[in-house]
Every structure is written in C-alpha cells, then in structure tokens.
Description:
The protein is mainly α. The protein contains five helices and two strands, in the order H-H-H-H-E-E-H.
Amino acid sequence: MSRLAPFIIILLLGATGYTWYQKGADVAQFEEREAVLLKTQGELEAMASSFRGQRDSLRADMEVLNERLADTRLSVGKLRRKTGLDQRFQRSYPQLAQTDWGIVDVYDDKSKQWSEYLVVPLWMSETFILDHQNASR
Length: 137
C-alpha cells in the first residue's frame, strides 16, 4: 500500500486540476507582483523623501518670515525722532512735543520700498486741522 501512496496523491492532484506546471506559473506570477510592489514602494519612498525635503524647506522659509515679522513689529513699535524735526515741532506745536510722536518705517508693497512716516496720536490731528483753518482766515 505504501508504494501506491505517491501515485494516489498524483492522481488526486490531477483530478483537482492542479498541476506542477501551474505551481511554477503561480510562483512566477507572485514574483512579478512582488517586483512591481517593490518598485512602487521605492517610488513612494522617493516621493516621501522629496515631500519631507519640501516640508523642511518651507519650515525654514517660515522661520525666516517669522523673524522678519518680529523685526518689523519691533521697528514699528520703536518711534524714533529726528533732532531738527523734533525742535521744529516743539516750537510750532508745543502740545505735540509732550506726546508720544515719532517716525516709523513702513514698507510699501507696490513700490517695494521703505518710507518714513510721521506718527502722532490720533487726537493730535485736530490740532493740525485747526491750525490749517486758522491759517486760511
């Protein structure tokens, strides 16, 4: 009976439609799929690496922009005065000399240039309006 066992197994495999050639074809098909998947994995890893590089570059750009913003906020917060202008303001508008006025740099996006602007407390605009009205009388 033991001599018939291999023949019986072969007959059973043949009856189910499975042949040794199919097994080889299945292995080849799986190896092809594996090769495609490995290639795709390599491409995805390259894309991920590229995206990480772009992310790091954008983060570095963002840090530079945040530093510029902080510097700009500091420069806006710091009012400076020009000595000659300071003295003329004190003579012309004594009430303005006691206020927190000054000169700031403002960046103009259209002209791509920095310009100096005079900054005075809002309520001081009335002084200029009244002075202009009195001068025109």
